[in-house]
Structures are given as structure tokens and as C-alpha cells.
């Protein structure tokens, strides 16, 4: 059991929790994630690590209430516990893992919605190691902009964008990035994290601008070890699995349309059976969820 130390509402239906998990806190790095279960019969919920404290032995997660499992999680309070808290899973951010290759680069992060949660620990780590990046945080409206103050303290320039113009730039994050570049900003790397459709259009723009781009894919996951195949993505024509090969990939090579279609299809039993038949030996299986067997 893993004790919940703090609970904080960041916005409507967006909650931050600090959980006591010393083994995870000791090993995790920005860009990685955990999979938790509320109780022994609960669904496995993959969540990005939004912060950690090695001395305290705690890990922070941010989640949006979108279904029954996250609703149950949202009802827990300080002092309660979650049953499982497995991690760290996935690979650390490419910038962290290969910092010497990026320490003299101009980097911009683009966070959409809850994507601010995985962006913040990367920006914080870079700041602690002498590199302050620019950050764009975008949301539909100002009430959904999260982690603004923490990010502002760790970055070089923080730009806010809201679809309805209620705070910051009025428009999409892609429009704001175009504006910054036209004004003379030069970036050697873009890191985009958020809804798949947002990452798709950011990647299309940065490709036209000649800015290398990393995206963090967070498709449906079940086991988090590459066995079930739920998080399959196609990158540069090759099959990858976000939980073990990612979650970061080259945004200019990701097949976003396939990823979005697959995420919709995978939600039904019939859809999972269809994908198993279509994808054959590359589908994986054996997770007990999709009904497949290792192939």
C-alpha cells in the first residue's frame, strides 16, 4: 500500500497527488511514468510523474477525471492509500538522458492541457542543471491552465495560450509558436506533450519550420511492459510500443492518424479483436485484457 501525503485540486476535474513511494522516488527521472491501482480489483492507470522528492521518498502525479477508475482515485484523501504504484516505467526524457547534446541549445516546450504535468519536471531538471527553456502552456480556457507558477519559476519565458482568449495569447499553441518565430525566436528543439491532435499539428508546423521535435505518446496502456500491445505506435514506418520504447518519439516520424484511430478502436472488445487480426504477429497479446496470446 502506498500512502497519499497530499491532494490538491489544480482545476476542475484535474487533481495532483503526492504519494509516498521511496523506491520509485529513488530511481525516477523526468519523462517516466507509473502505473497504479486504487485497490486490488482496480484498473491499471498509467500516469506521468509530475514531480518527485528523493529525500522525502515521494512522487507526484497529476490526473484528469475521465472515467470510473480516475473518479475512484479522485475520491481518496490525504492519509488514504493506493494498492499498487509500479515504476518508474518508460524511458527518461531524451534531453535528460543526453543532456550534454542539448545544454547549449534553445529549447521550447509546448504543453497542452494536462501535458503541463510531464513538461514541468523536465523544465525544472533543466533549470537545476543550468539550462532555462521557453515554455508554451495551452488550454481551452484560463481555468484549465495548470502549474503556471511552478513552471514560470523554472523556465526562461512562459507563454500562455487559451482558445477563448481568456488569458494570454488568444488562439492555439501552434499560432503562438508561429508568432514567436516570426518575431525572431530561434529554437533548436521543440518538445510537445498533450492531446495527440495537438502534438500532430505542432509537429506539422515544426517540420515546416525545420525545428526537430520530440513528442510524448500516451496511448492506452495495460501492462506497461510491452507485452499486451495496447500502446503500439508506428514511428518512421516501424512498430514501437510507447511503454518500453518511449514514451518519447520523433514527432516528425509518428503516424498520428493511425495512433488516434487505434485509440478509438481499442476501447471496444470488437475493436481489440479487429486490431489483433489486422496486426498479426506484431500485435503482441497475452495481457488478459484484449484476449490475445503471445505470438
Structural commentary:
By secondary structure, this protein is of the alpha/beta class. It is built from ten helices and 16 strands. The strands form three sheets. The chain has a seven-stranded antiparallel beta sheet. Strands 11-10-9-8-12-13-16 form a seven-stranded mixed beta sheet, sandwiched between helices. Strands 14-15 form a two-stranded antiparallel ribbon. Strand 1 and strand 2 form a beta hairpin. Helix 4 runs parallel beside helix 5 (148-154) and helix 7 (196-209) runs antiparallel to helix 9. It is globular and about 50 Å long. Residues 268-275 and 285-295 have low confidence and may be disordered.
End-to-end Cα distance: 34 Å
- Side by side, the strands of the main sheet go 6-1-2-5-4-3-7
Number of strands: 16
C-alpha Rg (nearest Å): 19 Å
Low-confidence runs of at least 5 consecutive residues: 268-275, 285-295
Query: Hey, roughly how much beta strand do the residues contain?
Result: 25-35%
Helix content: 25-40%
Query: Count of helices?
Result: 10
Mean pLDDT: 84
What about the largest sheet? 7 strands, antiparallel
H/E topology pattern:
EEHEEEHEEHEHEHEEHEHEEEHEHH
**Shape call:** globular
Q: Structural class of the secondary structure composition?
A: alpha/beta
Amino acid at each position: 500500500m502506498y500512502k497519499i501525503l497530499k491532494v490538491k485540486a489544480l482545476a476542475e476535474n484535474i487533481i495532483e497527488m503526492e504519494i509516498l513511494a521511496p523506491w520509485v522516488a529513488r530511481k525516477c527521472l523526468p519523462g517516466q511514468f507509473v502505473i497504479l491501482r486504487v485497490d486490488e480489483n482496480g484498473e491499471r492507470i498509467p500516469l506521468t510523474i509530475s514531480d518527485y522528492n528523493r529525500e522525502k521518498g515521494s512522487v507526484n502525479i497529476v490526473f484528469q477525471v475521465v472515467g470510473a477508475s480516475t473518479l475512484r482515485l479522485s475520491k481518496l484523501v490525504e492519509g488514504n492509500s493506493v494498492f499498487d504504484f509500479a515504476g518508474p516505467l518508460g524511458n527518461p526524457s531524451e534531453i535528460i538522458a543526453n543532456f550534454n547534446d542539448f545544454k547549449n541549445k534553445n529549447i521550447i516546450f509546448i504543453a497542452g492541457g494536462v501535458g503541463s504535468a510531464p513538461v514541468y519536471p523536465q523544465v525544472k531538471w533543466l533549470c537545476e542543471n543550468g539550462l532555462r527553456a521557453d515554455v508554451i502552456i495551452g488550454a481551452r480556457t484560463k481555468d484549465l491552465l495548470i502549474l503556471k507558477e511552478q513552471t514560470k519559476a523554472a523556465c526562461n519565458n512562459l507563454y500562455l495560450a487559451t482558445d477563448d482568449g481568456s488569458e494570454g495569447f488568444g488562439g492555439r499553441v501552434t499560432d503562438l509558436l508561429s508568432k514567436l518565430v516570426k518575431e525572431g525566436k530561434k529554437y533548436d528543439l521543440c518538445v510537445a506533450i498533450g492531446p495527440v491532435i495537438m502534438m500532430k499539428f505542432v509537429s506539422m508546423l515544426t517540420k515546416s519550420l525545420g525545428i526537430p521535435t520530440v513528442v510524448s505518446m500516451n496511448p492506452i496502456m495495460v501492462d506497461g511492459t510491452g507485452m499486451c500491445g495496447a500502446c503500439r505506435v508506428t514511428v518512421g514506418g516501424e512498430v514501437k510500443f510507447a511503454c518500453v520504447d518511449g514514451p518519447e518519439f520523433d514527432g516528425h516520424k509518428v503516424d498520428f492518424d493511425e495512433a488516434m484511430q487505434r485509440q478509438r478502436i481499442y476501447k471496444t472488445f470488437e475493436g481489440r479483436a479487429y486490431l489483433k487480426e489486422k496486426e498479426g504477429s506484431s500485435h503482441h497479446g497475452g495481457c488478459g485484457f484484449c484476449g490475445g496470446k503471445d505470438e
